[in-house]
Amino acid sequence: MQRAPDHETVNRSIEPLIPAFASTSQLMALDYRGRFAEARDAWLARSPSIDTRTNYDRDITQFLAFCGIDPVHVEKLAMVRPVQVAAWRDQLREQGLRNSSILRKMTALRSLFSYLQTYGYTGANPAHSDFVEAPAVPRDGKTVGLTPEDCRRLLDAPDLATPAGIRDRAIFALLAYSACRVGEVARLTVGDYKMSGGHRLLEVFGKGGKERRTPVHAEAVERIEAWLDTAGIRDDVDGPLFRAVRSARGRGRDGFQARPLTRRAIQLLIKRYVRELRLDPAVTVHSLRVTALTTARERGADIIDLQDFAGHADPRTTLTYIRSRDRLSKSPAYVLKY
């Protein structure tokens, strides 16, 4: 079996070429560098999501490092060829990255070159699928969902005798009944929890800067109301809805800080309760989003309504969150007998 060339060999085999932009044949090297840097920065700024910009910038920086390109010399992207992109893909796989992570990184690189072309770059897109095949990702996502029974155990796990427990119960109910992303929950303010036409609503600022209004389930309303009264923050409309305790030992008895509970803190909170309840260790905070969408679909919710509920731009993305629990239970694997 022929061994794929290592990335140093691949990179040495690439003959340096001068970047080309339409109608700019007289540009000097520094002008090319400035044009590439300008295009890269504009590409990153296109997304209103700070998280997306951070992830994409990190992915491109990793690729440049793999190719031995100093980020200052971003114009050397014009030297990149499909063989380097393929070698990067293979190295990422050898490092143990999941196909979904590799696909995201390759998508970022492909998107950057596509944007460069729109900006006037006349070279090819070396990350295009016609040149380099990205790893396949199953339509059914990898995140583990919860059964309704295990979800109920998680919802009721926090201790009502402590202020922090009351807060945690409100957070868990919001995640399980709204299908919000953890970052969306972490960004909520007290003022985002509103009343409109007899409905309790959340004004959610989602991925990519998109805004949506989500009705709040009655159980979540009850728990949020209890939390607002316990924390005494009902009138602090500009302050964070969920806040960090003043001290871990106090469990909120000595009050809460004015700063929001971070996304990472909520992730660790779920992880702790999952461990205490001895649930599947693969369960994460994202599992509650998967569980909400799957359960709603099983109980008759329309996919377009689910798309709006989840804040997805494309219903095909929503479908990746639906776990086919009934289909799995009817698998031929269970009828085999020898």
So, CATH architecture of the largest domain? Answer: Orthogonal Bundle
Helicity level: 40-55%
The CATH topology name of the largest domain reads hpI Integrase, Chain A
- List the helices and strands in order: HHHHHHHHEEEHEEHHHHH
Looking at CATH, the homologous superfamily of the largest domain is Intergrase catalytic core
Question: Briefly, what CATH class of the largest domain?
Answer: Mainly Alpha
Structural class comes to mainly alpha
Strand order of the largest sheet: 1-2-3
Main β-sheet description: 3 strands, antiparallel
Radius of gyration: 24 Å
Q: Would you identify the regions where 5 or more consecutive residues have pLDDT less than 50?
A: 12-19
Measure the end-to-end span. 38 Å
Q: Which percent range describes the beta-strand content?
A: 5-15%
Count of alpha/pi helices: 14
Number of E-type strands: 5
Coarse shape: globular
Any idea how many domains? 2
Overall average pLDDT: 84
